[in-house]
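Fold this complex.
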Amino acid sequence: MVDLGSLIWHASMSMLTTAAPVCEPAGTIQPSMFNPAGAPAATILGITWLLFVITGAIAIVVLSLIAYAAIRCRRKDGDDLEPAQVYGSNPIELAWTVIPLLIVFLLFMISARGIFDLERTTPPEGSLEVSVTGHRWWWEFDYGDLGIVTAGELHVPIDDGKPADLFLTLHSADVAHSFWVPQLGGKMDVIPDRINHLWLQANAPATYVGQCAEYCGTQHAKMLIRVVVEPRADFEAWVANQQKDAVAADAAVKEGHDLFLRTSCINCHTVRGTVANGSFAPDLTHIMSRDTIGSGAAPNNPKTLRQWVFDPQNIKPGCDMPSMKLSRHEVDLVCAYLETLK
Amino acid sequence: MRLLGDPQVSTLQKPNGPAPLDGPVPFLSKLHEWVATTDHKKLGMMYVTCGIVYLIIAGLEASMMRWQLAWPGQTILSPEEFNRLFTMHGTTMVFFVGMPVLFGTANFLIPLMIGARDLAFPRLNAFGFWLFLFGSFLLYFSYFGGQGLYGMGSAPDVGWFAYAPLTERTFSRGHSTDYWILGIFVASIGSTLTAINLIATMLGMRCKGMTLMKMPLLAWMMLVDCFLVVVALPPLAAAQIMLIFDRLLGAHFFDAQAGGSALLWQNMFWFFGHPEVYILILPGFAFVSEIIPVFSRKVIFGYPLMVAASVAIGFISLGVWAHHMFAVGLSPMLNAIFMGSTMLVGVPTGIKMFNWSATMIGGKIRFDTPMLFSTGFLCQFLLAGLTGIWLATVPFDWAVSDSYFVVGHFHYVLFGGLLFAIFAAIFYWFPKATGRMLNETLGKWQFWILIVGFNLTFGPMHVSGMLGMPRRIYTYEADRGWELWNLLSSIGVVVQIVGFALFALNLLHSSFKGRRAGDDPWDAWTLEWSTTSPPPAYNFAEEPVVYSRRPLWDIKHPEDPDWKYE
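Structure:
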């Protein structure tokens, strides 16, 4: 049975993956499943085209039957005779019981193969292992031995000519979430009393976007994911920088630094190298190395950063960070300090 | 089995019309008559009327969501308001539109079709209706009472499947989720009781000569449906009791932080939730199984296989619930097993599609409005079934589960399928219930407008889902490639609103001014058309005796009766 399955599997995969439409140009960040960037997503797309062809054929057959009946079997005006009453036909009914059964069997064998190929509980060789924790409403990424904890953006190294494997271990700090970056693979739910695993793969450097797929409360819509796949040298530089503690505040931003540490920011946020060691909200040690703030709710630039610190509820209404009721001047001071956290 | 004796044709006696009334009835006594009624026909019409009212409410809720999503980054609704709207929309459509239409039509039609005078337990039947109605009031009262003492809440915003632990007190303050639990719990008690009542009626009160295999297909499918209700609703009630223990009494069934299980809720909910999908769609199957033969002027093709397929759907649907949980990290073997069972349910459903098509082929089809809607049902439900096979395929499901693809898929099932079948049924049986015809011209306009509006709304959702758009998001980024598809969906809603307005107009107008229907306007074959329109309280002047599945065919065609062939 498995042999039959694998035969059909490889035949259909080789046919269908090459028949897939031309990818969009590299660098675009539209999270379409038609633009797979690695083996898991490509496998899924191959199965999708197979499904499209088989069910498309079924649809054409049945719709033709209905259309034939609707066009050719109408009552003509003045024709009051009843048509011949046909009560059924055993051979015909047997046929449309057995043929769908065979189609279902075929689809089952092919797809079961896909399940066993894609669902992994051990990391593929050479993959980057990251522990992911879903929070309401942001993602925490823990690189384990590398000693890096970051939020919202996942950096992955890629070597020339080899796809980058990524093996995630998924935890939830509160409710159910789901980790989904369509171009890199399927999604996997992130559930509080469970530890799940997800294998993703990228074969080209780019920034891939995705977001939480399981409804998790008010700001479910703004729980975005960015996966930055970059050449190994860039990655190593990023790692070296992330591993450092925060720079000491120089005189120019001393006032903002003190204000930050005096305010209740530090109950939730960590800035390594200072007394701020809260773990309820994203680690800010290298906040300026990120493209976005608020888990993708806004681009990270001086203007939005100030808006965010002034009142996050304007950008991400319902999120857990309150407005700290700082004056405009105080906001400038704090942000000037934050902007040194590169 | 044929009854012995001659002649083999019963001459069904028409009851006399309702007694003439002396002057206008005072409003209060009329109200009393409806509130205190145990008549299955009145209860049936009340169920369906409530269903239509809630359909309009839940439809407006959906329209507001589509307005918000028409363009990226809109702020017409706050995130909280949006989340409440989709929770109320889904909950209302499933429990307070789908279920009352199911029980309303079953109430009205089953006794008439099997030649009985009422349900087995008429007062229990009335009790079930009022439980349903007050359950729905409880849910909607949350808009006023959900704030409780905490200053949080209003209507529930946890989604219609209310995944734990989002529903725990930690994450859902106030009483909104309590209202959600109690409203559905109360209504589901009514549903379970009414299902038991209907099963007793169908098993025990069929008229003389009507063996199980001579029951109309509608009755068969409703029978399967009621068994599903009895099996599937109690697990939901149990889960809800456990949840309210968590919320109000400090239990920890689903509270993961205190050692409870979030997955337990998912299992219990979907053990109800998936059969529920078939509970909702089987009445749709039932309606078209009666309507297509009458308008094709042909007997249903393969009655025994249709019965077998219905029973098979009932059984298989109890073993597929984990296909809602393919992304929770079940083992590959479990995923494969549930994929297999889910694909398998496509086989009996496919048999039905083929049998309906075969009934039409070789017929002499009259495309009156009920038949138009039934044909629309066939085409759209076909597409829904096929995307269902896609979703059953686990790797594809990993790509699109919880995305707009799923939203598109189940709206093809419940709107393109069920609601179109409900419209067919309303146009078909309205004359029997009221004695007046619905307007055919308005009906045909409504059909074509809804065909366009429906497909324009829900077709593009399949695309936006495959482009990576998750469901239940109150807004989205502009650069994701989803703008066009969302705009199309929202334009479709505008078209739909026109169609629904025509329907409301038609209902109101035809109830008072519609053409008189007569007893048998469609030249149909089942027992309900042998009595007057509307039927008297006692339904039949004398208990009918039937010899075949189409007793009125036998009377109309004594030279070629059905019992010769069955």
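Chain B touches chain A through 92 residues (CB under 8 Å).
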